[in-house]
Structures are given as structure tokens and as C-alpha cells.
Amino acid sequence: MPPDRQNEEDRESDRTAEATRRLALLWAPTEPKTRGRKAGLTRDDVVGAAIAVADEGGLDALSMRRVAAALRVGAMSLYTYVPGRTELIDLMVDRAYSELDLPAPGTPWRPALATYAREHWNLYLRHPWILQTNMWRAPLAPHVLDAQEAGLRILVDEGTTERQVVEIIGVVDNFVQGLARGAIAENRDRENTGLDRDAYWMSMNSFWEDWFDVERYPTMTRVWEAGAFDEPDGPFEPSLERLLDSIELTIEKARKSRTP
Known about the structure:
mainly alpha, Tetracycline Repressor, domain 2, 12 helices, flat
């Protein structure tokens, strides 16, 4: 069998009904037919209601029944608009990513990458449930790919290899997601306990007098006495600047290695 034909048959065998349905819903959506009656809902209505449910209670609270209740319709009627919960989450993620104000082409790499990072940081804080999904299997959705394209575009002509571009954007994504998860957990604990972070640590002050051993932890003591644990501007901005400094060194090194 000719190689081209074999490859084509292999690609066809990789297709599944589920993947085809999920991708078509993202890339070529059509409003469902309602058998002659005027539709009371649109798919956008369903996605918007689902996001509101998840914003309030996370993905654990998301069910077709909860979304239907928010829309004041029967749960079964939602299946006219989305085949199931998996496809609904795909659409929710794509809708959320449409909120990103991505850096314009041609913006210098450092402010562009800072904007890219801040936009994702704020997105995760607005919609914490995004980080409950598997970020390594993000939906192949238009606005998700728009964000990935913007990130790669920032660095692809700055002197690093294409592989380094992918690695750097991966580091930035992991940095933002990690800090966002911490901030989200802190917000949740503050809501549950009524104590902000400062109040919580004040409530644990007795530890430093009763249990902390400066001889066992001399480095920690030195760093604390220098005020290094203070975060007057919050953890995100200072850490982002340090990360950008490191990326700048990587870019400079790559440029020098390519200079004849």
C-alpha cells in the first residue's frame, strides 16, 4: 500500500465520534433545531449559566441539573444545546479565554510577556474552576489556541530556538498557574474562616516563642530578620519581574550564541 494512503488510513482510524463531536462544537457550532417552536435558549445562554455556577461553586458544583435550574428549564432540555458535561466544560473554557486581552503583534517581548502573564493571572482569579481542569489537556478551542499563539509569537523572533520558546512559555504558564492556585486557596480559606492571611499568622504567633528553634533554623532566622518574607506588593508582581529577568538572560545568551 502506498505510504500516503497508509498514513491517510491511519489518520482516519484515529478519529473518534467523541473527538469529532467535541471539535465541531467548538469550531463549527450551529444552533440546534427546536422542531418549529421558537427557541427559548441559546447555547451561549447555557454556557454563560454554567460559568456562573462554576464561578460560585467550582466544577464540583457543575451539573446539567444545576445549570438547568439556573436557567429555569428542565435538565433534559440542555442536551439540545450540548451533548454532555465534557463538551460543556470545553465551551466554558473557550468562553473564559475569550476574555483575555492578549498583547498585539509587534509589542516588545518583555512588556508583551508581562501582559500575557497578568492576563492569565487575572483570568484564573476570575474563574478559579479553570485550574480544576487538566491544563495539559486544554480544549483545542479557538480562544485557547489564540492565547497559545500569542505567547509563542512574543518570543519566536527574539533569538532563541523554537524549542526554547516552547520551554519558556511553559515556565511562564506554570509560574502563573502555581501562584494562582495559591491565591485561590488563600481566598477560599479567608472566606471559610473569616481570617485574612495576616490575621491567620497573628493567631499562630505563640509558635515563634514556644516552639521555633533559631539554632535548628539559622538560615530561616537570618532571612526573616532581613524582612525578606514581607510581601508589600503581593507575591505576583515581584516574582514576575524576577522571572522576566531570568528570561532576558536566556534571550541574551541565545543571541550571543548565534552571533558569528
